[in-house]
Amino acid sequence: MNALKSLASVSDIATRYHAISGLVVADLEEAKILVGEALAQDPLDADSVALVSEFTRIRRGDAVLAGLLEDVSIHPEVKRNVSSYHRQTGQLPERLVKLFSDSHQDSLSVALLSEDKTALAHDVDELGDAARGEEIFRRESLACTSCHGIGSVGPTIGPNLVAVGTAASTSYMIESILEPNASIAEHYENMLFTMTDDSMHMGVIAYQDDSEVIIQDSALGKEVKLPVGKIRSKQSVPSLMPAGLADQLKSRDEFLDLAKFLSVLGDPGPFQNDERPFIRKWRVAAAEGAEPPREDSLWKPAYSKVNGELPFGDLDLGKRVFAKGFVEVQTPGPVVLDINHRDGLELWIDGEAVSDPSKPIDLSKGRKEVTFALDMAEREELGLKVLLSPDRDSSVKFKVEGGI
Ligand code: HEC
Asked: Does 123 or 23 have the greater pLDDT score?
């Protein structure tokens, strides 16, 4: 008697998910029997993404899962989780994207694609508002910032967009959002490798010779070596950038704003690349205490806008909010912090309170943690913008830390 069949009666959905995930590799036939029913139920706290991903890691697993789910009404919460994962990572195979789609509204992408291209580009140029577009670009629901960095900060899954507007036309920006596969940015061609053991790897080729291929594995987020002798087949697959992201926008106007922002990125003016040493990579935390919290888990990442400001929206976490950045000091000496607004603000360097942030601060060699506490009521709707410069005649040398 097969003990696994009785899984259907296990009430804890997380346990069932977990068991089915294990079966995909160990005993696919058993997994097939159980998966449809499991995905029709409210996942509660269980990780539906992990379960679905399990099928995408085996050869033709996407087709198998699609077949099994044909007549299943997938629980809306499962759809929401899986779609949101795809928007952030682009990892869901095309065949499954529609199946798990959580979009009810008429698709904005489809409407925009049916418009006259020249007229749409004209509207972006004439009516789009780049400042609003930047806010939209930074929205979590749109996921742009989970793959693209701008300048010294942000992820590197997609190309850095710091100067994308200088090199390409407005029509190219529109196409990049609506039809990511129409033209793939150089060096970002995505390949799918099926190995002789039926496992699969997807990513962009970083290096190859006669004996191995090294890819930036997009699921694992790191480089993986694939011995040439173990590669069964390789095929070009769609851009990692998900199509249909525009459906997360509220209106056509928002699309005009977003495309406008991209089209001016890097142009002379307010969206030009500014390489001056602003703190752009931040960690922020809300906490009641007088001192900055010590536990790492309380701090979440945030990044300044193109103009160097960490906007109020990223700080609006509580009454008292901490924000910290990092500076690598190569040659010690005094540094001046040019802070946009000093009301309701306290400062620590490496955990030591600085009594007067307006005076030059002596920095010793090494990685310095620059932490601000902000009294949000006193600062009203202000963001935080911090530019570092050497004090007059100082020989101090430093670099503000960027990255993810
Ligand atoms: C899952 C990762 C991912 C997400 C999310 C994502 N992108 Fe991309 N994007 C990429 C990759 C990878 C490329 C390069 C391949 C290609 O051109 O399609 C790219 C290319 C682009 C390009 C062309 C860049 C160039 O140098 O030619 C633009 C513009 C762009 N994305 C804008 C956006 C915007 C706006 C959003 C949010 C609505 C977004 N992307 C969301 C991964 C992503």
From this structure: 123
